[in-house]
Amino acid sequence: MDRNQITKWFKAPAKMANKYSLNAIYFCTGCGIIEVPPVITARWDAERFGIIPVATPRQANLFLITGYVSVKTLRAIIRTYEQMPEPKYTVGFGSCPINGGMYWDSYNTIKHLNKYIPIDGWIAGCMPRPEAIFVAVTHLWTLIDKDMANGYIKYRKNYKSYRRNQELALGKLEWPPLFPIAEQPQGNEQ
Amino acid sequence: MRELELYFGPQHLGMVGNFSITLKVEGDRILKAAANPGYLHRGFEKLMEYRTWIQNFPLVCRINVVEPDHIEMVYAMAVEKLAQIEVPERAHFIRSIYLELARVQSHLFGLWAYANMLGFDTVAQWAMYHRDLVLDLFEELTGGRVYHIYIWPGGVRRDFPPGFKDKIVNTLHSIGGCVPDYDSTFFNNRLFYERAKEIGKLTQQQAKQWGATGQTLRATGMPYDIRKVEPYAAYDKVDWDVPLREDGDAYSRIWVIRDEMIESVHMIFKLLEVMPEGPVYNRIPNPFKWKIPKGDAYVRCESSRGELGLYMVSGGGDKPYRVHFRTPSYPNGLIILEKLLKNASIADVGNIMISLYVVAPEIDR
Amino acid sequence: MKEKTISKKGSILSPFKAVNYLFKKPRTLRYPFEKKEPALRYRGFHLNDWEKCTGCGNCADICPNEAIEMVEIPELKPKPAEGIKNERPKLDYGRCCFCGLCVDICPAGSLRLSRDYFHIHFDTNTFTFIPKDEKSDKEHFLGSEQYSILKASLAHRKENYEGFSSDIEYALFEPQRVPMPEVPPEERKLSFIEQVIGYNKEEAKREASRCLECKLCEQACPAHLKISDYIKAVYEDKPTESLRKIFEDNPIPSICGRICMKHCETACSLSIRGEALSIRWLKRFVADSIKDYKTALELRVSEPTGRKVAVIGAGPSGLSIAYFLTLKGHKVVVFDSLPGGGGMMRIGPPLYRLPIEAIDKDVNHIASLGVKFRFNTTVGKDILFEDILKEYDAIHLGIGTTVSRSTKVKNIDKAHLALPFLQANKIAEPVKVGKEVIVIGGGNVAMDVARGALRLQHIQYPGQDVITKTVSLENWNELPATKDEIEEAKAEGIQFNPGWGPKEVKVENGEIKGLLCMKVKSVFDEQGRFSPTFYEEKQTCLDGDMIIEAIGQAPDFSFVPKALFEKLEFTSQRKVKVDDNGQTSIPKVFAGGDIVNLNLDAVTAIADAKLAAEGIHRMLCKR
Amino acid sequence: MNKSLREKLESTFKNIQVTAVDGNRMVVTAEKRSISAILMSLKEASFDHLALISAVDYIEDNEFELCYIITCYMQDQDSEANDLHIILKTRIARESPDFKTVIDIYPNAEPYEREIHELFGIKFEGHPRLTPLLLEREYEIPPFRKDFDTRKYVKDLFDNIPSVEIEKK
Description:
The complex is a heterotetramer.
Chain B: E1 3-8, E2 20-26, E3 29-36, H1 44-48, H2 53-60, H3 68-83, H4 89-118, H5 121-142, E4 151-152, E5 155-156, H6 164-176, H7 179-187, H8 190-196, H9 204-209, H10 214-218, H11 226-229, H12 250-274, E6 295-303, E7 306-314, E8 320-326, H13 329-341, H14 349-355, H15 360-364
Antiparallel strand pairs in B: 1-2, 2-3, 4-5, 6-7, 7-8
Helix pairs in contact in B: 2-3, 3-4, 4-5, 4-12, 4-14, 5-6, 6-12
Chain C: E1 46-48, H1 58-62, E2 68-72, E3 87-92, H2 101-105, E4 111-113, E5 120-121, E6 128-129, E7 141-142, E8 157-158, H3 185-188, H4 201-208, H5 216-220, H6 227-235, H7 239-247, H8 253-259, H9 263-267, H10 279-289, H11 293-297, E9 308-312, H12 316-327, E10 331-335, H13 344-347, H14 356-368, E11 372-374, H15 385-391, E12 394-397, E13 401-404, E14 416-417, H16 418-427, E15 436-440, H17 444-460, E16 467-472, H18 483-492, E17 495-498, E18 500-508, E19 511-524, E20 530-543, E21 546-549, E22 553-555, H19 562-567, E23 589-591, H20 602-622
Parallel strand pairs in C: 7-8, 9-10, 9-12, 10-11, 12-23, 14-21, 15-16, 15-21, 16-17
Antiparallel strand pairs in C: 1-4, 2-3, 3-6, 13-22, 18-19, 19-20
Chain D: H1 2-12, E1 17-22, E2 25-29, H2 35-44, E3 49-58, E4 63-71, E5 85-93, E6 98-100, H3 109-120, E7 123-125, H4 150-157
Parallel strand pairs in D: 2-5, 6-7
Antiparallel strand pairs in D: 1-2, 3-4, 4-5
C-alpha cells in the first residue's frame, strides 16, 4: 500500500471501506456462476480482494450478474437489486447481458441488461476467467474512486424509465415502485 | 400449526443454481413441494431449429454449464447417426478419456456443493481446487476452461497436444493422492454419516417408477449405466465396474459419486494405455452446404448425473427439424425432488436437492 | 461391483487428519503477482492478419451468433482479380461465444484467437472492434515491458500471443479438389483425343460441395457469372437450374467450360491454402450433362422490335451479343469467314482441348433462337462493310486478332505461322511436320502449337524419335502461358528453352536446319513496355527442321474503308477505344473481344459483349 | 426378444406399423387411441423406463407427432431388451391438440407432458397440473410451434424496448 492509498483512507474512509469490502450477493443468475466457486475458494481466493459471498441482498453491495438473464430471472434480479442497500455495484459477466450473446434470438432471454438495471462494469468473455474477475474488481475499485460506479444513483434518477422498461419486458410488476414516479403519484413505500 | 407457503430460491444460500422450490410447510415439516424451474430457460431446442448443423455445435454445450461435455457428445452422436459419419478409432478413445475427465470434474463440483452445504468447508475447498486442476487439463486440450467445444461430429476438434498424456497422468495422480484425505475428512467422517444417512431415501421400485437414472438409481442397487448397456465411444474397449450402493439415501448417492470418480480415474489410465495412434477427425461436409437426410434418432449417453438422451429429427435440410434433450436432472429435479421433499424438514431441502445432483440449467434448457 | 456393502459409520475424529494441511505450502495463486499463463490453444480475443485476410466473409456466415459483421475499410484497396475485398470482419463481444468456428472456416488462416481475454469496461460500445494483429497494428499490441494486466483491454494487448489458430487438418472446408480424370500424357500425346474426361455426377457433386459461397470468384470473373449459385445447383442435383444461372451471363458454356482462362479460380478463397474449386470443370459438367439446351432453358424471346443488328465475327463476343440481342427481340445476322461458328475458338484451341462438337453445340443453340449465321462470308470481300453499315441499325465488331505476328528475323519466311498451322490442324488437312520442331513463343498459343505439333509428329512418324521444343524470351518464372499448360506440356515431353531470343533461321539448301538464338538480357524496358534486349555474344543454335512462330496476333481491319478507319480511335495499348456502352468512335459501330480488351480470352469477350448488348439495346430502343 | 416383441405387438394391435431401424431401435407408429394400451403392454414386457416424451410439430401435415421413447432398466443380465429402445409415435391433429395423459402408466410422464403442454399447447386430459413450468411471459402461439418465429418475436419485443440512457437529462 503506497502513501497515496493511506491518504485516501483519511480523505474518504467510507469510499475506501466500500471498495475493499465488496460483499457479493449469492445468486446464481446464469452460467457464469460456474467460475465463481473457484474464485471464492482456495485456488484463486477472492477474499484477498475483499470479496465474500453473502446470503441475502440486504448484506450485499456487489451484484455479479453471471451471464444470460432470462425473463423469469430478470424479475428476481430486479427484486434482489432493489433490496440491496446503497451504495451498490453491479457487474455483468460475459457476452450475454451485453448484447444477447449466444441467445440473441431467444424469446426468453433479455438482450441488453442495462435497459432494466444499471450496470457499472462489463467483463468480456464466455465465460470470463477467474483472472478477468479479479481485474474487473480492480477496475471497479478505480471506478469507485472516481465516483464513476454510480449506477445506483442513475437508477434512482431515471427510475421512471427503468421501471417502464421493466414493465415492458415483464408485464405488470407486482411490487410497488422503489422510488416515487413523478407523474403517477402512487404509494412510495420503502 | 398454520400451513404456510415458503419460497425456496432462486436467491437462497441453500440453493445451488438458479432454481426455486415452492414449499408448503407446517412448522418445520414440508407438506408439499413444487419445483419451480424456468429461471434459465433459453429455449435451446427452438434456437437449434434456427441454426445449421455446425452452428449448433458451439451452442449445445451451453445447456449444462457444470458438465458441457456430455451434451456435446450426444449431439455429435446424433448427427453421426443421422448423417452416417464414421469416427476414427483414436477419436473414440480421446472422447472417452475426455468424457471421463469431465465426469471427474463434474463430480468434484458436486462434492463441493454438497460438502459446502453440509458445512464441510475444508473438503469443499479441496474439491474445488482439484476441479480447477482438471479444468487446466481441459484448457490445455481444448482452449476453453469451462465450455470446451471439443467433440464435434466426425471426431474431436484437435489431437492431444504434445506431452498431454503425461499431464493427465500427473494431474490425476495428484488428485488421487488426496483420496485418503478426502476419505478421512469427509466420507469416513461420522458427521457426514449422521447428516446424510436416511435422508432422502428412495427405494429401487420408486426410483424406477419416477424415471431415475445415474447415481440416484445406482445408489438403490440397480447397475444401470448406459456405458455398459449401450456402449459408445471406447467404453467397451476396457474393463471397468459400475459402483453400486444399496440404501438409496443421500449418503449412498454421495458414496456412489466418490466411487465413480475413482473408477473414472482408473478407466482413464487404462484407456491411455491402449489408445491407438491415428487420425482423430473425419472431415465433415462443407458446413454451408451440409444437409442431413430425413430421419430421426434417439441417442443416449451416461452423463455424470444419469441418462442423457437426445431425440433429434432431421427434415432433410441444413438445420435440425426438432431436437429434444432428455436430461438426467429433469426427472430428478421435477419428480423425485418433489416426492422426496414430502414430509422432510426444511433443513434437509438443500441436502436432498444436492445429493440428487439437480442442475438447474439442464432442466430448463 | 466392488464395495457393495455400506462402509462403516466412520469416526468423529478422522477429519482431524486434515490438520496436517496446516503445514503444507498454500495452494492459492497469489494473482496478479503470481500468474498462470493461459494454455497455448486458449480461445481468447480475435487476431486478424490484414495482409492475408481476403474479406471473403466466411467467418461472418458461419458465426452462430451473428457476432461478426463485414465492414468496408476505405483505406484498403479491393483487388477483385486476386479475390481480395476491402472488407474486414468486425467482432461484437456482446455476442461472441469464443467457439472458434470462424477460425476453423477461415480459408486464408488469417483469423486466429489470441490468449488475451481481458476487456473490462463500463461502456458496452467498446465491446465491438475490428481485429488486427501486431503486424498491422503496432499501437495496440504491446511488448511485454509496456503490457500491464491491469490496463489490459481490447486496445491494450500483448503482442505475439497467439492462441487457438487454424489447422488445415481440422479445417471445416475441404482443401483438396476432386481429381479430374484425364488421359495420361503418354497416351494423349499420340492423338488428338480430348485430354480431360470430365466429372461424372458423383464427382461433380462432391466437388461442388466444396464451395464456400464467398463469391470472391464472381467479382473476379470478367462476365460476373453467378458462380456460387450455379455451383450450388450442381450440388443440389439441379443441372437445369444450374444451366439457367450460367446462361444469364454466358451463352457458350460448352466452349467456356473447356477453355476459359478461369480468372475465378485464381480468386477462389480455397486456393489460398488448398486447391481452388474446379469452377471451369463444373461448368463443363453442367453443359455436358444437358443434351438439349433449348428444352432445358425454356428461354423466352421478346416481341420482335424490327431492328436489325449485324455482328461481324462469330467468336465468343459475336456469339454472345447475338444471343443477348436476340433475346431482346432484335434481328441479328452474324457474318464470319469461317465455315462454322466459334471464331478463334474454332481454329485456335486444338482438338484435344476443344472438340468441334462442343463448339457446335453452343453455336447451334444460338442459331436455334433465330440468329442468322452467314458463314464463309468475308466482310470486305463477299460483302462490303459500307453496305452493312447502311442496311443495319447497329454493327458489332468481334473480329478478334486473326493475323499472326512474325519475329521478322532473317530467313523467317521459311517458318510457319501459328494460326494457319492451328487452323489447318483443326478444320482442314493437317500440316506435314518435321521430326524436330521449334516453336517460337511462350504463351498459351505457343503451347497449343507445340503440343499440336507433337501430336502430329507422333501421328506422322509413328514409333520414331521426334522432338518439339519451344523458345521464348521470358524466363521460367515469367512465361505467359498458364501453369497448367506448362505442366501438361512438360509431362508430354515438350522441351523448353526460356530466356532465349531468335536471331536468325539457319537455312541450308533451302531447308531449315535450326534456329540461332541469343541470350535475353531483359524483356521489358523501364516503363514496362515490351522492348527486349539481348547479350549479343551469348548465342546458341537449336537444331530443327521446322519452325513455327507463335508470338502473338494482331487484328485485321482491312475490310474497314479507309475513310472510316481513320475515324476509328485506338487506345495507347493499340486497342479499339470503346465507351461505357461498348460503342466505338464510329456511331452505330460497337466492338468487343480481343480487339478491345487486354485479357485476350473468351470470358472477357463475353463480358464485352454483355456491355455492348446493353448499349446497342439502349440505342435501338431510344430511336 | 426383438422379433418376438415385434410379432406380439403386431398381433395384438391393429393399425400399427413396426419398423426396426437398426439393431437396437424399434419404431412403432400407432393411432392415437391405442397408445395407452400399447404402452401398458410394453410396460408389462419389461419396458419400464420412459426416457422421454417429445412432440414434433409437422406444420405441413397440420399435425403434431408425439414420441414416447421407452427403454428398459436391466431386469436380468441375459435379457435382450437391455439395449433396445422403442420409439412410439402417434399423430394428433393440430387444430384440436388433445391427448390423454399416461401418468397412470408411467408416473414420470408428468413433467414431460406439462412441458409439452406449455411449449406446444397440447392438452393432456387427466393431467393433475397443467400449470406453467418454464415460461414467464405469455405467448400467443406456444413458442415451440413451428409458426412461432423467435427471431421476429425478439425483434418486436426486446429490440423495441428503448434504452434508458437516451432519456437522461
